[in-house]
Design goal:
2 domains; 8 helices; Arc Repressor Mutant, subunit A; alpha/beta; four-stranded antiparallel sheet; Rossmann fold; five-stranded parallel sheet; 42% helix
């Protein structure tokens, strides 16, 4: 399976807010969704909660240093980790890699090199991670990709093949708004924009099956003028 780096979610854990802003400004136009945390404990919690596609992790962090974040994260997850740090000592780089970091980039860095390393990591790790995480979970909604089953709590939801594919596209990007064209490109590839209104029909049918009140949806929301979003429990 080819990895869709263009829509990848990145979590940057670094207490240098100016650097985080610069990373966001450079990577967002490339199609990445950038989330930030400014201390180790908050970053670790965000990684477990939001399951980003890649973590960019500084070693020198308050509350919990980057090596400890890496150790705890790698103990429970295969999320790729790119170490990003001002430390130039080889021992830190080696320890980070031994703890399970996928790559290491010292500061100061060229943003183009950061982008190249991110894309390389995602290409290497995309398919294995997909196989290792068969379940996609958003609150009590769970989708088992190998068997193509969807559950709401312990109750199985009867979805057509297209409905399940569409719900899966939104669930894998929960908390993010996708336009109709983006949804169709994920489902069918480029060139389906002229059929974008079919998304509305399928969304309406999905709501009948997953919402307590389909007329006032709380899970699968419309963002007027933009598209649709499957909400996380902490979404506004």
């Amino acid at each position: 399976m080819a990895y869709d780096a263009a829509m990848a979610r990145l979590l940057v854990i670094d207490d240098d807010r100016k650097l985080v802003e610069l990373v966001d400004e450079y990577l967002s136009p490339q199609g990445f969704h950038v989330q930030a945390a400014f201390d180790g404990a908050t970053g670790l919690a965000a990684a477990f909660r939001d399951r980003p596609d890649l973590v960019i992790l500084d070693l020198m962090l308050p509350e919990m240093d980057g090596l400890e974040v890496c150790r705890r994260l790698r103990g429970q997850s295969r999320i790729p980790i790119l170490m990003l740090t001002a430390r130039g000592d080889d021992a830190d780089r080696i320890v980070g890699l031994e703890m399970g970091a996928d790559d290491y980039l010292p500061k100061p860095f060229n943003p183009r090199e950061l982008l190249a390393r991110i894309r390389a990591i995602l290409r290497r790790t995309g398919a294995p991670r997909d196989e290792a995480q068969p379940w996609v979970e958003v609150d009590d909604l769970r989708i088992h990709k190998p068997s193509r089953r969807a559950l709401l709590g312990e109750t199985e939801i009867e979805l057509t093949s297209v409905e399940l594919d569409l719900l899966l596209v939104l669930a894998e990007r929960a908390g993010r708004v996708l336009s109709r064209d983006q949804i169709l490109q994920h489902l069918h590839g480029p060139g389906w924009a002229s059929y974008s209104r079919s998304v509305d029909v399928h969304v309406s049918r999905i709501r009948q099956k997953i919402e307590a009140d389909p007329k006032q949806p709380s899970r699968l929301k419309t963002v007027r003028g933009v598209g649709y979003m499957l909400c996380r429990p902490d979404s506004p």
